[in-house]
Structures are given as structure tokens and as C-alpha cells.
């Protein structure tokens, strides 16, 4: 059975676009039913519209009183949701939503978690810190989302080596390439039912 996916994105949406590309190439048994964004002007929204994917713009300006994100949850509940993918989504998901969709929300993070995770570490901020600390390696992590920032169970992680000549922009580009690779792999494991949970521990079927 095809998995029904909802993607959350705030910006360029290259991870979102990559998932759509893999679906079009029949490399994922899935469909994306909805794109949620906090930013009505972002490229991810444009891309969703061009691809006839429904969009929902959700932010505190439009819904100032929705502190637990109940309106967002109600909106999601109108769809069949097997999996939620955070793809460059820069807002926190409420406990209400995380609990409702337990073990069904994945995030891609541009570092080797737990390094450079947590509030304040996102997007270029991560790569700037890696550069400043002259790290010799970086990478990306696909993990399930729990109630805190970037602390949920890790599904996949891939490391890259950095050259001394690297700057934060070249690091970002290299990391983004492997994000696309491992996010696809993670989503593929989910869509082929190869992810299992035993006493709260994540198990990946060979
Ligand atoms: C990606 O590097 C993603 O890992 C990062 O934002 C970028 C979005 O790129 N996400 C985070 O930092 C989340 N904490 P994209 O819009 O091109 O997919």
C-alpha cells in the first residue's frame, strides 16, 4: 500500500523536491498529500502548487491563539497520514502533534547529532559553527521527532570529511547532497515497512 506523506517545509524545500522526484521515478511507494509551511512566500509552497499538492500555511500570525497547535492537528486529521516529514521546517512541533503521530514524524538535520543539535542550531547556523570550530568532519542525521529539539531516535546518519579550505557555504552544499541521499533512504525504509519498534527501541529490518 502506498504511504500517505505530509511534508513540512519553511524554505527552499530541496529535501521536499527530492522526495517528490523519487516518487515520480517510482523509487518510493508513496504520495505526498499536503505541504505545510509557516511561510506563505517560500519556494516549497510554489513547488507544491506547481505539482498540484495541497498546501496549508500555518503560523502564529494567522492562528495567534492556537498555542497547542490544535488547528494544525485538525487540519492534518483531514488526511490519511502515515508519515510526516520535516524538510527544513524551522518551527517546533507541539507535544500534542508529536504524541498523536508518535513514531511517524521524521526530521533531517544538517549535522552529526547529537553534535550541533538543539534550539538555535538550524540551517546555516550549524555550518557556521562547524566552520568556526574547524571540525574535520560533518554530516547529516535522519531521526524520529520526539518532544524536544533534535533528540529523537536516530534512523540514519552519514559522515563527510571536510578539507581545510572549506567554508560554511561549501560545507552546507556538501551536507545538503548527503541529506538528499539519506533522507530518501530513511523514507524508503519507512515506506517499505522495514522500521520496527521493540520496547521503545528502533529496529531496522535488513
Ligand atoms: C536543510 O539543510 C535541513 O537539514 C535544515 O534546513 C535545510 C533546509 O533545506 N534543517 C534544519 O536545520 C532543521 N533543524 P531545504 O529547504 O533545501 O530542504
Compact overview of the structure:
The chain is about 30% helix and about 25% strand. The chain is of the alpha/beta class and about 210 residues long.
Keywords:
Rossmann fold, 206 residues, two-stranded antiparallel ribbon, alpha/beta, binds glycinamide ribonucleotide, 7-stranded mixed beta sheet, 6 helices
The unique ligands bound to this protein are: glycinamide ribonucleotide
CATH topology: Rossmann fold
Average pLDDT reading = 97
Low-pLDDT sequence parts:
none
Arrangement of strands in the largest sheet: 3-2-1-4-5-6-7
Count of distinct strands: 9
Q: What does this protein look like?
A:
- The protein has 206 residues and is of the alpha/beta class.
- It has a single domain, classed as Formyl transferase, N-terminal domain (Rossmann fold).
- It has helices at residues 14-24, 43-50, 70-76, 95-100, 123-132, 168-191, and strands at residues 3-8, 30-37, 54-57, 83-86, 105-109, 137-144, 154-161, 195-198, 201-204.
- The strands form two sheets. It has a seven-stranded mixed sheet, covered by helices on one side. Strands 8-9 form a two-stranded antiparallel sheet.
- The two termini are 20 Å apart.
- 32% of the residues are buried.
- The mean pLDDT is 97.
- The structure holds glycinamide ribonucleotide.
- Glycinamide ribonucleotide binds at residues 9, 11-15, 87-88, 108-110, 122-123, 176, 179.
